[in-house]
Amino acid sequence: MRRYPVGLLGLCLLLCATAAATDYPLGLSARDERGCRLGHGSVEGATLHLMSAAHSDPGFPAGQALAILRRALAAGCDIHEADALGLSPLNAALLYNDAALAAFLLEHGADPARPIVSPKAALNGLDSPRWLTLLERRQPQHDRRALRRLLERHAAARQR
């Protein structure tokens, strides 16, 4: 079975086009007993990454994505599972500029100090705050101040 990079909105759009009624939206079905991997046909990806991308898509009900994320986390899916670029769901939320998703993931145990392990030299070794700094420099047209405040509040709370 061929595996595609996860966390991409294109994958969700592909799955939308072939939707069928299942326990999951978009015609997806669980590919493992805990529901940590979802797929449709020969396309599959990590539940946390697919639903992180879906949450950030304005055409997808955010509440539904959060419900599936909650279910996956309750089943023991790895909140730090990396996609093909080495991004965790938290780092994907930073990329998508999705403060609500980042807050949800932090509340459920995502560790922003965990370094990215990536084949991309520019990403490899960065933690979430440094990844956010890179995004701010490379995409100054996107206002990521809410994400910055969120990471700072999280760091301050952990120091107490």
From TrEMBL:
<protein>
    <submittedName>
        <fullName>Uncharacterized protein</fullName>
    </submittedName>
</protein>
<keyword id="KW-0040">ANK repeat</keyword>
<dbReference type="InterPro" id="IPR002110">
    <property type="entry name" value="Ankyrin_rpt"/>
</dbReference>
<dbReference type="InterPro" id="IPR036770">
    <property type="entry name" value="Ankyrin_rpt-contain_sf"/>
</dbReference>
<feature type="signal peptide">
    <location>
        <begin position="1"/>
        <end position="21"/>
    </location>
</feature>
<feature type="repeat" description="ANK">
    <location>
        <begin position="85"/>
        <end position="111"/>
    </location>
</feature>
<keyword id="KW-0732">Signal</keyword>
